[in-house]
């Protein structure tokens, strides 16, 4: 039952229609909450999943123009059934036993609903971001995904894309979704295949379809400033501008240089962008899109794009993906409950980054983003793969095991190129485990699309009040599958927590919880358990 609600206004100071990265903070109203005994908090930014629960340390986060390189949501939840929500970015601090929070330009809501983390989440889901009832395309869940980024990097080309797809099948991996990454296009904003690299893209995509792949292309909201598209959009006033009169397009520094930005707060700008994507689908048979680089961090200068905040421009970019069942986002704002595939931000090829996959995926679910992928297997940060002599085969194997029972799993570095025969066999088995469980995973996705619940959950969500708040190396897939992978290099045995109930393990053993046990975890084993009663 919802028993308490507080609403206060925390205004964002605007000058006309301009948005500034240095927001003045004077006479701001805030709500203060006193931390309850043994209270823990989650939410805000997905990349803070690894820092959760926040009661363990001092915490500060201002969401205006900052999604921390991944997904974010104006939502915080406690294991005592309390919540904090706003329709606008939240500024929040936790110091000692005091939580201070306010929202930029909107009311902030706090309250209590029930007594647990799950109670608070379900109330907020129903009230603030109702589930759509829809999912991304089933193939995103049932089969592995493959991304050409690590193998081809900025040398995307027709010959090597086809070779990568053929090698997937040749090495016994099941076909699925194939994403062609950045630099397939002529220029940013000129969304046509570079004819020097892709002489016949229609025949390439037709061949990939015949190999049972569905094809997605990388796109972004940036416009190269030395292109006819830039001049056309400048004349039509469809880009983000530096001035109110819209005479000087904003040029933004991002990881691929300096570019202009399509104004997605303008319906005509959004329509233009959708037209480019629809043309690729109709002309070449492209099935969907990886929509990247929509981070609000790129919109925090003094820019003019209607009444939108940087976060709302990020949200406008996310709404583009709703028109395509094959979609993926790495940065997103306030689109919880919607049928969008959300990937964790690029991770380095390190054990430290492997260890944040589970808590960040838990954070993804607790901010309402249900349909997630834990980055690329072995890491997606491309500079980690420049020296093949330092690649860690054990890390790639353990990464594939973490992915296998996640909602989505995505390969990029080719296991057959970098792994020994024995380790390649393990990765192949993990891909086929995901395939064998794909129907069940997709059924869970449909259930969560209706209920609003996360697909990946921490133990505290399903088994509240048992002292499981800080468990970050195990996760629940739905309510009946407990996954306990290895996240430490060289580990061949580990302690696991088995919650209450009767559980059957992958090795055929039955365990009755609650109990802590030590199990053997040879390199080839992914330990997981199904609840039987």
Describe the structure.
The protein has 533 residues and is of the alpha+beta class. It folds into 3 domains: 127 residues, Sandwich (Immunoglobulin-like); 313 residues, TIM Barrel, CATH 3.20.20; 76 residues, Immunoglobulin-like (Sandwich), CATH 2.60.40. Helices cover 27% and strands 26% of the residues. It is built from 14 helices and 31 strands. The strands form 8 sheets. Strands 1, 4, 6, 7, 10 and 22 form a 6-stranded mixed sheet that branches. Strands 21-19-15-12-11-25 form a 6-stranded parallel sheet. A 6-stranded antiparallel sheet has the order 26-27-28-31-29-30. Helix 11 runs parallel beside helix 13. The longest helix is centred in the C-terminal third of the chain and has 31 residues.
Q: Tally the structural domains.
A: 3
Proportion of residues in extended strands: 25-35%
In round numbers, the mean pLDDT is 93
What's the CATH topology label of the largest domain?
Answer: TIM Barrel
Helix content, binned percent: 25-40%
- The tally of beta strands, per DSSP, is 31
> Please, how many helices?
14
The CATH class name of the largest domain reads Alpha Beta
What's the CATH architecture of the largest domain? Alpha-Beta Barrel
**Parts with pLDDT < 50 across at least 5 consecutive residues:** 1-27
The CATH homologous superfamily of the largest domain is termed: Glycosidases
* N-to-C CA distance: 28 Å
The main β sheet shows up as:
6 strands, mixed
What integer value in Å does the Rg equal? 23 Å
Sheet/helix structural class: alpha+beta
Broad shape: globular
